[in-house]
Structures
1.
Amino acid sequence: MTNNKYILSWIDEMAAMTKPDRIVWIDGTEEQAEELRREACRTGELVKLNEKLLPNCYLHRTAVNDVARVEGRTFICTKTKEDAGNINNWIEPGECYARLTKLFTGSMIGRTMYVIPYSMGVVGSEFAKYGIELTDSIYVVLNMLIMTRVGNNVLEALGDSPDYIKGLHSKAQLDEENRYICHFPEDNTIWSVNSGYGGNVLLGKKCFALRIASFLGRKEGWMAEHMLILGIEYPNGEIKYISAAFPSACGKTNLAMLIPPEIYRKKGYKVWCVGDDIAWIRPGKDGRLWAVNPENGFFGVAPGTNEKSNPNALHTCMRDAIFTNVCHDLDNNTVWWEGLNNNPPKNALNWRGEKWDYTKYDKNDKIGTSGAHPNSRFTAMAKNCPSLSSEFNNPAGVPLSAIIFGGRRAKTAPLVYESTSWQNGTFVGSIMASETTAAAAGAIGVVRRDPMAMRPFVGYNMGDYFQHWLDMEKIVPHLPKIFHVNWFRTDDEGNFIWPGFGDNMRVLLWILDRVEGKADADLTPIGYVPKAEDIDTEGLAGIDTETIKGLLSVDRESWREDVKNIKDFYNLIGDRVPKELWKELEELDERLK
Ligand code: OXD
Ligand code: MN
């Protein structure tokens, strides 16, 4: 496979510790993948679904105690605690390696160790970074084959170089108490043990492409962000690209695959999806920022995905997909989830694999009574997405015209506003927040600050991360403008006012008009908001310019409350919050008086 001595000696070392019965190199061929799928079906790890209705699709169930990312068990192991910062969990690297060595020792006895050489980004491109994941899970192998670019060409591209990310994963005993997702950014290393859930074990995704990559990006002058990337095509054929960061479960995949409202489609507008979760962003030779999606597939939340909310995602996962923890319709051997349609299957197994009675479904106890787990997923190939951008595989990426931050706020944030400068835009990103909904356990309406949607994903000190954002201004002459959106404003009865989904296009067009200097705006204490008449409401039932005015209003009282909350959050991050951002906060406070 390779003569690279760094790779070979590392694999020897890891195998000596984990003691697999055999080692299998993943070569990226369809023949090998098919063999693994068959083996997984034999052992029950996968269930093959109806080949006619869902060609080449499989169902997998994780252990019931292992259904989501575990932030409390995720660690950034830099030499000093300060470099990981107060927002991350930290263990001293030596201690962490020692603790995990105990858990990994012999963890693959009786199992196979799979060696997955993979690339984040187009192999051989300037953006690409390579990794090798060692794992004892076929499910991980098959997901990595969808989510990343896997195969021998990665080893060829690596040649003799030691420059790759060393990822080690073992399901071990799936022991919750000893579950660890550990990152050693100073060693280019990730160790994950005792989990089999996607975000904890597909090491190319959150672990590498966000946590380790954000650390590398700071060192090397680029950015790894929790952002979707989309292109808007105008009737004249011109395409403009936007990236957008939203906290998990705020609709990134839906926005990335947006279908414009009919009135825009008729005029010739189109929206192209470049990525739905992660953007790697670099300064280009032309002085602009260029972005790629380093992934090769989508790991999307299934519940709520339907013909109305996201037909593109639905079509993407109707072939060559792996479904995790969804409901299994036994009558026709297909899958179902809450929000797919109003016809729950009568003869079905729930996400735990138990006989499921849909009449017992209780909205307030989704985990206990739903057919699909609320965090159930589809893993689907980018190339199957009907709206995939022709630039998806462009090694140079796409130039960004605008960056959008967003959160889920019932009252505070207006539908859209524009920051007044890069520094102010960085501030807007740093104060991003979402309110908890009834969907999550715990109190409703609690504000969780999630800077740039990166709170769980920054691989170093959050204060230094803010500084890195500010520093981009020194090296990039033509930066995109920064905006903030909120699709989630509610009326006094708690109903969403803005229709969202495809109609978000109307806001995106205002944003691009601003970038072009074609739209007017009013300056408010928080930034520029549109003139209500500049948000196109043609064809929008029940929404007129008055409604838009309400959606754009800035409620000083709730913003003043927010300022207090932001101060507490900055203090929590600690003394590395840049003084420029404290100054932005003080000035906002002043303007709100
Ligand atoms: C994801 C997440 O799975 O952000 O993308 O949690
Ligand atoms: Mn995400």
Note: The chain has a mean pLDDT of 96.
2.
Amino acid sequence: MAVIIDGKQISQQIKDELKLKVEKLKAEGKTGALAVIQVGDDPASSVYVRNKKNACAYIGIGSLAYELPEDTAEEELLALIGELNGKPEVKGILVQLPLPGHISEDKVIKAIRPEKDVDGFHPQSVGAMAIGAPGFLPCTPAGIIQLLKRSGIELEGKRCVVVGRSNIVGKPMALLMLRENATVTIAHSRTKDLKGLCKQADILIVAIGKPQFIGAEYVKEGAVVIDVGIHRDENNKLCGDVKFDEVKELASAITPVPGGVGPMTIAMLMHNCVQGIEGDREG
Ligand code: NDP
């Protein structure tokens, strides 16, 4: 029976560490705020935005909220980003995705100065991560590395399979595991014999975006299983990409949904904001 990796507890630990750091920085005269921009009033996005503001308040940094109407023109949003880029007290800029269809996410991401790109989505941040240069790391994959390390799971030399190759989860996840000296394979929808491949993994990271796709037949006995997916099942209960109940019987450690990877994303966003205030982006 697997150890259940407690993302809620580990994320709380990180936020408490950051709170102390923010106090110290304040004493040195270093402060700053996160600017969060939401376009439209998608209910899920509103929840995420509220959680981000609450997290800023908890660790003691400022937050500026910009709630723009759904029909905001792309130029208007780009102009606001330009203005925030120029404000020294704004250390991080986050535009809540997805954006309405008439706005190019690509243009918006590229408009944020890399020094304020706390989501780590700007091509410069992505490139820096790939070569191990200083830059903000994307929050969900960086959070998974923290979950694994703080749970005492050895990464070096381990065979890691990442299922999913999205720009926000799968690809950066594979790069960060490589940086930790794991031997990494990325699987996707065209991968042949996914089951056989997953069964070789010491660490299996699943970011497929399909509810309860990965069952026990994909998992080697004693493997560590990280479930990135978030879905609602037929009873409106949250679930992940992994069949938690059956996989926990043979894994050595597993993340639950909710309470696994999810809370880590926001903790790492706060981590990036504090790095921004320190003026010292992580490499
Ligand atoms: P995407 O839909 O962008 O990517 C899914 C990936 O899974 C693609 O690379 C796709 O392959 C691959 N895939 C799909 N079907 C299969 C299959 N049958 N076999 C193998 N690979 C397959 O999703 P995201 O990466 O954005 O997100 C993944 C999940 O994580 C979602 O449930 C999302 O809600 C959740 N999420 C959770 C976060 C958190 O904070 N916990 C943060 C971000 C995401 P291909 O490229 O070939 O199409």
Note: The longest helix spans residues 7-27.
3.
Amino acid sequence: MSEAIYDVAIIGGGPAGMSAAIYTGRAHLQTCMLEGLSTGGQMFNTATIENYPGFARIDGPDLSQKMETQAKEWGVEIQFGQVTEIQRAGELFQVTTSDKETVLARTIILATGSTPKKLEVPGEAEFAGKGVSYCATCDGAFFREKDVAVVGGGDSAVEESLYLTRLVNQVTIIHRRDRLRATKHLQERAFTDPRIEFLWDSEVEAIEGEGTVKQLRVKNKKTDGVTILPVAGVFIYVGMRPNTEFLKGLVQLDAWGYVEAGEDTLTSMPGVFAAGDIRSKGLRQIVTAVADGAVAAMAAERYLGKRGL
Ligand code: FAD
Ligand code: NAP
């Protein structure tokens, strides 16, 4: 990687990181964005987005591409590499990737978002990619005309079930309670969709199959009765885990592992800012992630300005 010293290194290329990049780029701050997988983050894996202002309906990959293009137009350098460590190096920060490449920067914007949680049941690891999926947009097409299950009761589970109904024969949502957590608007759509059924108060005990997923063992928590649900695939949406392991004490985290930072995006370490889903906050959405990105970029600019950098 480059020997240059960047004004800002943005870690993570989801909506928070890309918004920060657009703002730092426009402010003529020399900016490097490091992304471990592909730009767009969770947004890239979302089939259709219906709540991002300005677009009544837009595909996640499309919105991701538009943000990336906009960031590049402002001179932002995008480098691909999984960041494994950030250390203070005098007045600078040294960012290290899994390939042992390093980047030096005067400020850091943390925007690494979160990753889907595992269900932690027998068969989940064995059948990962063979019927077990965490991304309906990526894998839904493999289950055309087949029956699938979705585990979870939040926005992700319901929204992605609605997406799957366009492809598969039948979706069974398995939820551990008798009430969904998802927003009312999504609930109403799911309840009236003939291709969606519900198994309430139920937990998946095991994912079973031969080579690929064939069935789920589902236990009703109220009756203790076990049902065998024949499905070709299971999509798991049981919440998210913040991507903060690599921070190793650089900044303070809350009890759930999110970076402690308020609306001002300031962390416990001067010069390090946190934007998007990685931050302790009430609403994790694309619109709040991009708002954080803008705030973090301006905070970084002020930090540099105060030091005459
Ligand atoms: P992310 O989108 O998670 O991006 C983080 C990026 O950082 C990723 O690209 C990741 O690869 C990268 N990264 C992680 N660790 C490292 C590392 N160590 N080094 C380098 N790079 C790293 N919100 C809406 O507003 N509308 C919706 O319709 C909607 N649908 C959703 C559907 C699903 C299935 C899910 C899971 C979420 C949905 N959300 C939706 C929520 C929304 O996607 C997130 O709130 C938003 O993407 C958060 O943006 P972010 O930039 O903070 O993090
Ligand atoms: P979430 O809101 O945390 O919901 C997780 C769901 O999984 C809950 O229903 C939970 O049950 C269930 N669950 C958790 N652990 C479980 C386990 N071990 N076994 C079985 N079920 C389990 O997560 P999410 O739906 O992924 O949403 C994450 C964030 O992204 C949220 O802020 C959400 O609003 C946002 N998002 C927004 C949209 C949108 O705006 N359209 C779409 C997708 C996601 P309980 O209900 O019993 O806790």
Note: The helical segments are 15-26, 41-44, 60-73, 136-139, 155-164, 184-191, 286-306.
4.
Amino acid sequence: MKEKNKKEDDLMEKIVSLCKRRGFVFQGSEIYGGFAGTYDWGHLGLALKNNLKQNWWKKFVDNRRDMYGIDAAILMNAKVWEATGHVANFADPLDGKQFNTMLKTEVGAKKEEVAISYLRPETAQGMFVNFKNTVDVFHPKLPFGMAQIGKAFRNEIAPRDFLFRQREFEQMEIEYFVRQEDWEKHFEYWKDEMLDWMQDLGFDMTKIHELEVEKKDRAHYSKRTIDFEFDYPFGRKELFGLAYRADFDLINHKLEYIDEEKGEKIIPHVIEPTFGVDRAVLALLLSVYVEDNKNGEIRSYLKFKSNIAPVICAVSPLLKNKPELVKYAENKVFRLLKAEFGRVVWDDNGNIGKRYRRQDEIGTPFCIVVDFDTLTDDTVTVRDRDTGEQERVKVTDLKKYIQEKI
Ligand code: GAP
């Protein structure tokens, strides 16, 4: 048991250190000693996070006919949070008294005009308060959904475990409006959709477990919740959630829906699939981190699927002081691939072995090297991250070769 715990602690340390060393995630306000519960995203972490969010948006918004996006303000009228019960109930126990975890702020310059506001603790309310706008503009038929990706803030009593529990984080949420009698059917459907997305992105599905949350542990607005838990090194804990919010929010905001065909007024019920971006990144890193032994040397790499890898391929001239190699690599390979795939980097730092290690560590699926043979036969070496195997590929076939692999 002790040995297992040590291994898990080590893994977490390795991930945190890799994130810093390779420019994925830095501690927030680091040069001033940090600021608890905040992290800053470096170039590669940002690329990973953007790919993840774009992938989510494509599946749940762009590829559907029944979903409407919104990007609501983070600062909202305090009445929103009074109506939803967050002011009264959004609290964690602290020293026997309840501590409200919403981050309060003051808005306005003149004393008499200053209003209390809260940095939103969930993106969900940005959708509910725009329910009427969306219905009035798009006239959607039930069932339909609203989707939002954005920051959320919670004054967590004890932020910890790297990206797991922060005070500022990001959510990707859907509020799906259904007829009351259909809620169970849609709940099951969304459970499968969430699992599908996790599978498609490359989460280690053996580490994901469903937990039926007991009434006493559910949020105040939920009539049923399933947590998708993940086996993190620090324990099995919540990754994402799926809640049946029933008509709680629409009733509290005094909102309703008119079925134009039937001419009836109803209050739709809500199924809410919710995804934390930061926890998704952490669980993904833990899912794809691999160590193997290559010719007696331990190497670590991130086995990202190419749909989310921050970099798809790195292009290198074998030697950076040979202008003919550099010119060929730049003009005939790098530019071609950059225009096609975007996520392509130039890497001529150190020897080839070092470049491979560096690209392995950030999870780049392919390294392409221009060498002296290239100058005579127009072929390049393509090295596969996972197997370490190398193939000669004609430059004219390179785009197709990579497209097929990804
Ligand atoms: N609108 C529903 C809602 O906000 P939640 O379970 O409180 O539900 C949703 O939060 C998701 O947001 C969680 O499943 C988790 O992925 C993420 N999350 C919540 N608190 C977080 C925190 N302090 N740090 C990082 N992510 C967090």
Note: The CA atoms of residues 315 and 368 lie 5 Å apart.
